[in-house]
Amino acid sequence: MRYMLLMCGNEEEDGPAAHAEDEEPCWMPWAREMQARGVLLVEGSQLQPTSTATTVRSSGSEVLVADGPFAETKEQILGYDVIECSDLDEAIYAASRHPVALNGGVVEVRPVLASV
Amino acid sequence: MTDAQAAVAEAFQQEWGKVVATLIRMTGDWDLAEECTQDAFTTALTRWASDGVPDRPGAWLTTTARNRALDRLRRSKTEAAKLQEVAVLSVPEEPAPWGDSGVTDDRLRLMFTCCHPALTLEARVALTLRTLAGLTTAEIARAFLVPEATMAKRLTRAKHKIRDAGIPYRVPPAHLLPERTSGVLGVLYLLFNEGYSASAGEDLLRPDLSAEAIRLGRLLAQLMPDEPEAAGLLALMLLQNARSAARLDEAGDLVSLEDQERSRWDGARIAEGIRLLEAALRLQRAGPYQLQAAIAACHAEAASSIDTDWAQIVMLYGELRRILPSAVVELNRAVAVAMADGLEAGLALVDDLAASGQLTGYYLLPATRADLLRRMERNAEAAASYREALELAPTDPERRYLARRLAEVSS
């Protein structure tokens, strides 16, 4: 099954720790562990902060563009990963080992609608 | 009731969960599994009346339900149904082995899946009652005092989540097993308490949830013989349930443990509970359910409140607090301390708890305090605490009990 992991947290407090050029990013050990378990990392990335977000609404003829995320919340989506694994237990494990979860953030696990 | 009807009713008790569990494994489709199992029981009513009751009713029902599922999948022309049909034909009726411990009963898979932590607690309880115990949606709705449509929606939503989110149908692997087992035990105990605290006689058609919880607890203990907490939970439920006849008086009012007529306790249930507990304790992996059962056993074995081994109960609550720190456990320990070491010592612990603010709003805190003060004949203070408890008590029988005590200390 394919799942999207949405990394949620406060971008002021839970953002990724800065790392020096010659250091590996904090998610690298996670990626290695997942690979070793047979969890396929389809894609994923951190996101730029919500201060860079743009919201678009469209009625077809009129496009409404606004600055900011779609909802102002205490926690924001910091990044995402799309993984492929056997079942929800495995996806929960992957989420529980992610640095965002380990640092006080929340990971929302959403199955991707299968395209049969 | 004819012999065939009686045999079907008996098979329903014994086999419903097993047939559903097997069909879910074979089809991967919870709704189809339930409907085909229902159909198999309906067919049994006529066929067993004409052809006689089969030697192995469970196997007969499983095969009938499986054939029914195949029929339905064949008639449906969708690609998905064709794939499902192939899957059903290739899956054996006997389940596959689990780890090194031999064959897993499908009901154990079903139990763990129903109690998966990704489902809401309400959904776990409802699914367990529907799929394992075979209660109808209407019966479950009645048990939880919600409209049938609400319960139907809850069940459908849970089944869709299992399918769409990929909740696995299996007994969890070793690294997840302890945590998930305690989840299953928690659901059963919640079910038991739901039945225990519901006031009797209010709704005669309300299913007996405590009896269902004991039935499922028996099944779990039998399916997980190496898990002492499963036996511990069953022992605890039996020991508590043994007192149910003495818990209420003729007027339906609560009778405190101290004042219960112990001859009305169910001796057979107590004996069974103690036997189970002793066997569980021999595995030397005590857990919260075994400890609570041990406390219940101390009460069950005592001829009266005074004869109770309160020192042993204080020790057991201390142990329970160590592995499961909670203010409610501490409150219970305070009562045992009052009985073992004197009322003053118990009251001091209750006052510490009150000062900590952890149990604010919990009616048993002022009720316990009131009770200790009443025994110390500090009637005015006791009355104030009874009044406080009355404001917070959640059900009528509890309020009537407190009002009666309040009248005693006020006169």
Query: What is the structural class of chain B?
Result: mainly alpha
CATH topology name of the domain at 1-94 in chain B: Rna Polymerase Sigma Factor, Chain: A
Task: Extract low-pLDDT stretches of chain B.
Answer: 98-102
**CATH level 1 class label of chain A:** Alpha Beta
- Give the CATH class of the domain at 1-94 in chain B: Mainly Alpha
Share of helical residues of chain A:
10-25%
Descriptive terms for the model:
heterodimer; A: 116 residues; alpha+beta; Alpha-Beta Plaits; two-stranded antiparallel ribbon; 6 strands; 34% strand; B: 411 residues; mainly alpha; Rna Polymerase Sigma Factor, Chain: A
What report would you give on this structure?
The complex is a heterodimer of chains A (116) and B (411). Chain A has 116 residues and is α+β, with helices and mostly antiparallel strands. Chain A has a single domain (2-16, 24-111), classed as Alpha-Beta Plaits. Chain A is built from three helices and six strands. The longest helix of chain A has 10 residues, at 28-37. Chain A is globular. In chain A, 21% of the residues are buried. In chain B, helix 1 runs antiparallel to helix 2, helix 1 (3-27) crosses helix 3 and helix 7 crosses helix 8 (148-164). Chains A and B meet through helix 2 of A and loops of B.
